[in-house]
Amino acid sequence: MASKELLVLFLIVAWTSSWGSVQSAPIRLTQTTLDTCHAGNFFGEITHCCPPATYTKGPIVEFIPKRDHIGPHRVRKALQCLAGDELRIYSEQLWRAYDLMKALPMDDPRSFYQQNALHCAYGSGAFIQDGTANLTIDVHFNWYFSPWHRQFIYFHERILQSLLNDTTFSLHFWNFDNNVDGESHGKDGCYRKGYLFPELYSDPSKSTFHANRSERPFMANLPMDLTVLNRSDIPLRFASVAVPRNRELMHRAMAVGNTSLDFHGVEFKHGDPQNLDINGGGSLEFLPHNSVHRWIGGSTALTTHAPEDPIFYVFHSNLERLWDVWQKLGNGRTDPSTPDWLDAEFLFFDENAVVRSVKVRDSLSTEDFGYSYEKVFDESWIFYDNSTSTTPTSPASPTNT
Fold it and tell me: Is residue 197 over pLDDT 60?
């Protein structure tokens, strides 16, 4: 073959290779995404969750957590160990913050109503991928689950801080995965079991209460059952049965698989169709996450309505803590390193109702957001022997969020 023909062949191969690489791209939300928001569809439920148009026409401002977080470093604490004056002060702050958020106009993107709506939009196919006719975006059942929810909880917390005029306020966490009391051995932290539904969210007279739950959160001394997954016929399991099953499931979710996709879920890139298969979720989403939503029940079991219950935010605060724990377990447990994941970019409203864009690569560390987590007794499940597993491993329904 002549040298000129070889050169032409080389250029064709190089061009087609380059073209192929361009097709693989991260999901990014832009002004066009907001402008083309439409009614969503969540397994047959038609949703109307688009952000209020009045607030989506301004400039989109980049948000880099390490550069742009506000206030002093904060420590999110385990709810079960709050006591005395600390509990009293925090309770008053929490209830007042949600009173104020729920009093905002419904079309204010900072309002409690719109907080749920934004999660609904991201979970029901209301946003269309730029440059496509009808390919939608979802942050569930794929590898965006953990980073997107970290960003979502952060901006929710930041709005609460603004309403309180207190940048030291933190959304503490429901440590539902800790099923036994541990010994502190003089170390700082919380070593009490945290599997009971938090009392701060159980008082009907307070703004953190939500009536549309199953009976389970209202039953005294009934522990969270992390093994219900997506069952509709949920048995009442008390501590003697639930605790060993919970520890076993947490060990499997966190310590058994060690690849990034085991934990985070399947890849989802620009040009991919929305994944509606619950099996696409990683071990954190598929196992403890789905079980908690189902166990609480009521509206909390549905993607389109789950954040209508304030417990959603402290429950997910613990899930992102568990991502942090997983990162530190070692033995090959590292986050995805591909630009398709790292450069994915999502949009949120901040405390001034300004649209902010955040990349996944800037959301991998809680320290960059200005907070860390109190030490708790994760050893209760990290070292659990699950060699005689009896807990279920497969889903039965796609209706969890």
Answer: yes
Beta bridge partners of 137: none
* pLDDT tens column, 211-249: 999 999 999 999 999 998 777 788 899 999 999 999 999
Do residues 136 and 272 lie in contact, with contact meaning Cβ atoms separated by under 8 Å?
no
The CATH number covering residue 196 comes to 1.10.1280.10
| CA atoms 279, 283, 288, 293: torsion sign | negative
Phi, psi (degrees; rounded to nearest 5) at 4:
-65, -40
Alpha-carbon distance of 203 to 384, in angstroms, equals: 35
Nearest to 203 by CA among 99, 297, 118, 110: 99
Q: Can you give the pLDDT at residue 278?
A: 81
Q: Is the pTM of this model over 0.85?
A: yes
Q: Is residue 12 domain-resident? A: no
The residues, any chain, with a CB within 8 Å of residue 19's CB and separated by 6 or more, are none
Contact (CB, 8 A) for 399 and 230: yes
Q: Can you tell me which residue has the tokens 């609460």?
A: 160
- pLDDT category at 390 given cuts 50, 70, 90 is very low
Distance from the first to the final alpha carbon of the chain: 59
| Residue environment code for 69-83, b if the CB has 16+ CB neighbours within 10 A, otherwise e | beeeebebbbbbbbe
In this predicted model, which residue has the larger pLDDT, 274 or 333? 333
Structure tokens at 24: 């693989």
* 147 found inside a domain: yes
For the packed helices 84-103 and 145-164, what is the interaxial angle rounded to 10 degrees? 90
Rounded CA separation 347/356 (Å): 6
Closest CA to 385 of 227, 252, 285, 237: 252
* Residue ranges making up the domain that contains 134: 31-383
Q: List beta partners, residue 45.
A: 42
15 is a domain residue = no
Question: Any idea how long the chain is?
Answer: 401
The string of pLDDT tens digits covering residues 158-170 is 999 999 999 999 9
